[in-house]
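Methods — Computational structure assignment.
A single polypeptide chain was analysed. Its primary sequence is given first, followed by the predicted tertiary structure written as structure tokens.
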Amino acid sequence: MAIQVEKMTKELCKGIRNMRTGLVVGGLSTAQQNYRLESNIQIIICTPGRLLELSPDLSQCFTVVLDEFDVLLDASFHEQVKSVMRLLPSRHQTLMFSATISEESRRYAKQLLYHPVQINVGKPSNPTEKVKQMILWVENDCKKKKLISILQDKRFNKPPVLVFVESKLGALLLADYLINKDILCAVIHGDKTQEARTKIISELEEGRYPVLVSTNILGRGINMPSLYELSVSSMVTLPTQLVNSPHLAYQKQSKAINENREKVKLK
């Protein structure tokens, strides 16, 4: 995502004098990134972990943008973001963008912001009406067969198609299975280098691969209460197995317990 953002930033900055960008992400040379940071750049596009690793001087950085901030403020990134914010001058502007905003992310945001202003575009936390949402319940033993039927159905197979799986091994095995069924696909996971990931994404955009099998390096795990609430609000027909799922009930209960704990902390 950071690579795509920098590419777009360069396009937008064309014609603006002395407007230079620097990309700071894992998987690329730290020496080259350090050199770039020391080259009088105006915009840094980064992941928080690599930025902290290089520890540049941010005393003159007066604007910080957190894209997909609901992800950046979850348990795995929250402390990193707070550490980055400490490197900024006391008076700076913080901009946060996200397509979905949970109550937990709102609470984290309030801890980082002073007199925040929220601006909504469209219906917050709702899928666009132009996209048809479909949810199918498939038992484990039937998943591959069902996937093949979907990919071979011209009504649903509109490349490019993303197929998410849980693990690297699962991604590799599924990719081999699809290829044996004469379905051309690529596979991406966390062990691939940044250069390899970028190449695969470019080839997908060019139409070389109609299907991409990926671990959650390109997405997030599905939170069932969030999925349930959005589906109901979007008038999506839900499988009875999902509505009656004990896992859904457990996640709802856990969510309520965590929210109550946060309320007690705030008091």
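Note: Residues 159-218 form a domain with the Rossmann fold fold (CATH 3.40.50.300).
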